[in-house]
Design a protein that fits this description.
Layout: E1 3-9, H1 14-22, E2 29-36, H2 42-49, E3 54-56, H3 59-62, H4 65-74, E4 77-82, H5 91-96, E5 101-105, H6 120-128, E6 133-140, E7 150-157, H7 164-188
Parallel strand pairs: 1-2, 1-4, 2-3, 4-5
Antiparallel strand pairs: 5-6, 6-7
Helix pairs in contact: 1-7, 6-7
Length: 190
C-alpha cells in the first residue's frame, strides 16, 4: 500500500517537482498534496502541471489544528516532506506525525542552521566562514528549528574562488540527486 505524502513548499519548487517526478511510478510513495504558505509560489504551478492537488495555507491556518489536520486527512497523508518550507511546523502537527515529518536543509547541520538560515542566507554564511565543503542535510522535524535527528548528509567540496551562487548550485545538485532517495529510504524503512 502506498504512503501518501504531502510536500510543503514556500518557493520555486525544484525539489517539489523532483520528488513528484521521482515517485510518479512508485509502488511505495504517492505525492498526494503540495502545501504552500505562499499563494504565488511557483511550486504550485509545477504541482498543477504534474497533476498533483495543492493547497495554500495562511499562517493562521497552519497553526490551527482544526483546519490543518482535516486537510491532511482528506488526502490520506501519512508523511510530510518539507522542501523549502520556511514557517516553523506547529507542535500539533509534529505530535500527529511523529517521526513522519522530514526537512531538507541546504547546509551540513548543525552548522548554519536555525532561525534565518534558509536559501541564499545559508550559502552566504558558508562562504563568509571560509568553509572548504558544504552539503545538504535531511533531518526529522522537531519543535526547535533545524535541531532534529539527522537522517542523511551529503557533502561537496568548495573553494575560495566559488561565488555564493556557485556554492548554491553545487549544493542544489546534491539535493536533486539524493533527496528523493532519502525520502524513499525513510518511508520504506517504516
Amino acid at each position: 500500500m502506498k504512503v501518501n505524502i504531502a510536500i510543503f513548499v514556500s518557493g520555486s519548487g525544484t525539489n517539489c517537482e523532483n520528488l513528484i517526478r521521482y515517485f510518479e511510478h512508485s509502488d511505495v510513495v504517492k505525492c498526494a498534496l503540495v502545501v504552500s504558505n505562499k499563494p504565488d509560489a511557483y511550486a504550485l504551478v509545477r504541482a498543477e502541471r504534474l497533476g498533483v492537488p495543492s493547497a495554500v495555507v495562511t499562517k493562521e491556518m497552519l497553526n490551527d489544528s482544526e483546519r490543518m489536520l482535516p486537510l491532511l486527512q482528506n488526502y490520506g497523508i501519512g508523511f510530510i516532506v518539507l522542501a523549502g518550507f520556511l514557517p516553523l511546523i506547529p507542535s500539533f502537527l509534529i505530535d500527529a506525525f511523529p517521526r513522519k515529518i522530514i526537512n531538507l536543509h541546504p547546509a551540513l547541520l548543525p552548522k548554519f542552521g536555525g532561525k534565518g538560515m534558509w536559501g541564499h542566507h545559508v550559502h552566504e554564511a558558508v562562504k563568509a566562514a571560509g568553509e572548504t565543503e558544504t552539503g545538504m542535510t535531511v533531518h526529522y522535524v522537531t519543535p526547535v528549528c533545524d535541531s532534529g535527528e539527522i537522517i542523511a548528509q551529503y557533502r561537496v567540496a568548495i573553494s575560495p574562488e566559488d561565488s555564493v551562487d556557485d556554492i548554491a548550485e553545487k549544493e542544489h545538485q546534491l539535493e536533486m540527486e539524493y533527496f528523493p532517495k532519502v525520502v524513499e529510504s525513510v518511508i520504506v524503512a517504516r
